[in-house]
Request: fold
Amino acid sequence: MTRHPKTQAGPRTVEDGGTSVVHLTLNGQELLAHPGQTVGAALVDAGIQSWRTTRKNGRPRGLFCGIGICYDCLITVDGAPNQRACIVPVCEGMQLSTTAAPVDAATDAPNDGGTKR
Amino acid sequence: MSTNPTPSGQTVGAFDVAVVGAGPAGLAAAAAAADRGKTVVLVDAGAQIGGQYWRHPDERAPRGPEAEGHHDWKLFTELREKLRRHRQMGAVVLLPNAQVWFVEPTAPADADDREGGWTLHLTPTIVGVDTAEATPRLVVAARLILCPGGYDRQLPVPGWDLPGVMAAGGVQALLKGHRTLAGQRAVVAGTGPFLLPVAKQLADAGATVVAVCEANALTGWARHARAVAAVPAKVAEGAEYALALARHRIPYRTRTAVTRIDADPTGTKAVQLAQLDAAGRVVGPTTTVDVDLVALGWGFTPSMELITAVGAQTRIDVDQSLVAVVDNSQRSTTPGVYVAGEATGVGGALLAVAEGELAGIAAADALEVHAMRIRRLRARIQRLRVFAAAMHQAHPVPARWHEWLTPDTTICRCEEVSFDSVCRARDELGATDVRTVKLMARPGMGWCQGHVCGFATAKLAAAAEDRPLTVEDLRPLAKQTLCAPIALELLAQVTSKSTDEAL
Reply:
C-alpha cells in the first residue's frame, strides 16, 4: 500500500488566487476541494454521484450513509484500495482512482468512473 | 497517567474512565467524570468531537458560522470548552480517528464481584491512508461508558441502491460537515420528525424539496399531548420546522411513502410516491416526481456492537430497536459498564446529554454528593424518555412495507442479496430466524456487517410468522467478534488471551 507521510497538522492546501483550495485528481482528471472536506463531499460537490460499480451486478454506487457505516462509497486513494470516501479527508495532491471500468449495468454504457448529475 | 509500552504495541492507561463516542452523550459523560476529578480517555471514530448531531466543518478550515444548521450549539461549545480545559490539565485524553474493535475485561472480577477494569483494542478509523494520527493499540480503564450513538434506519425499496439515493442523515452530514448539497431537487421520505430538519436544511442550502413524505398520519401524536407538553423545547422545534416548510413551500405529505425509484442514464430519478393505509399498504393511485436526490430515513438504529461485546443485557425498545438495559444511574447489567445516549433507546441529543452527565457522575461514584442534580437529571431523562416513546408510537415502521418490494429488490446492498433470495431462504429453506436467513442467503455478510440491512432482514425473517421483533431477532446481528474492520497485521500482533479464545 502506498503511504504519503504527512507531517503537517491541519488540512494541507495551496493558496489559489486568494482562496484556499485542495487539488485532487480522479482518474487523472483534476478536481478542486475545500480544505477539511472528505473525498466523498468533494466528489459530490463536483457533481459526481457514483464512482464504483458492484462486483456482482455491476450497479453504480456512491455515497449512501455518508458517515462511515455502509461501505458503499469505496474508492482507491493514493493507491490504497477500499477506502471510505465519506470519511477520508482530502489533502493536496491526493490521487483518487475508481476501480477498472466495468460496464455500467444501468445504461450498458462504459462506466467512465463517474456519473454526472 | 502512566503508559506501559507492551510488546504488542502501545498501551495507554490506566484511566479511571474510558468513554467511547464523542457525541452528545459521550461529551457530557467525559466532562461530568472529569469535573469530579476522574481521569478520562475519550475515544471517537471521527476526526473531531461532536458526533453526528454536532457534526461541523473542520475546525482548522472554517466554512462560515460554525453554528449554522445546528440546535443546542451553545451546549456543544460549553462541553467543548470544558473538555479543552480538562485536556490542558491532563485530566482528559482525546483519541479521535480511533475505533474500538475489541473489548475485554483487563482482569477477572474477584470473588467480591469487584470490577476488574477494561481493555479496549483500538484501530485507526482510516487504514492505508496516512492521516498523521497515531492511535494507541490498547486503552486500559477501570470503568467504561459506552455512548456509541446510532445511524439512519433503512427499509429497502426498489431502486434504493441507485446513486443519489442517500440516508437522510448522510444528506444532513454533507450539509453540516462540508456545506455540500447532495442534489438540486430532492424528496425526503420515511418516518419521524428527523425528516423535517433534513428538508429544511436542503431548502436553506438552495435545493428544491419536492416533498416530505411521512409514512404515518400525524394523528398518532394526539394520544400523547401530555408527553409532548412536558417538553416545550421539542414543541418549539416542531413549530420552527413547520414554519420553515411553509416558508419554502415544501409539501408535507402524510401516509405517503417512496415505493419505487428508477433512474435514467443522466442520473435523474423517477420517484414513485404512494398513498398508504394505516398498515402501510399502498392504496389509491401513485404519483411520480423527478428528482436527483432521495433522502430516506425510518428512525434510527443504535450501534450495539460494543454493548453486546461486554455481555450487557439488551431489550427491544418501543421503536423495535435493540437497546441496552440500564438502571436509573445508566449502569448496564455488566459491572463497571455504563451506557448513555441512543444505545439505551433512541431519544435525541438532549436526552443523550442528560444520560451522559448522569453516567459520568455515576462512574465517578459521585451520585450521593450531587443528590439534587441527580434528581433533576433523572426527572429530565424521564420526561424526554416519555416524549421519545410517544414519538416512536406515532412514527412506527409500516407493518406491510415489504409489500412494496419486487423479487429483484436489493435487500443487502453489500452482498447484493435480492428480496427473492431472502424469501426463498425463509419460505423454501425453512429459515425463520435472521441468523439462518443470513447463512442461507448472505444478507448482512458483507462489508457493513448488516448495519444497513439488518433491521429489514430481521423484519422479513419474522414476517413469515407475522410477529413483532424480539431480542433474539436483533441481537445476533449486533454481536460481532470484531466490532470494526481491522488490518490483518493488527490481528497478528494481538497477544491477548481472550482475543485468542474469541477467534
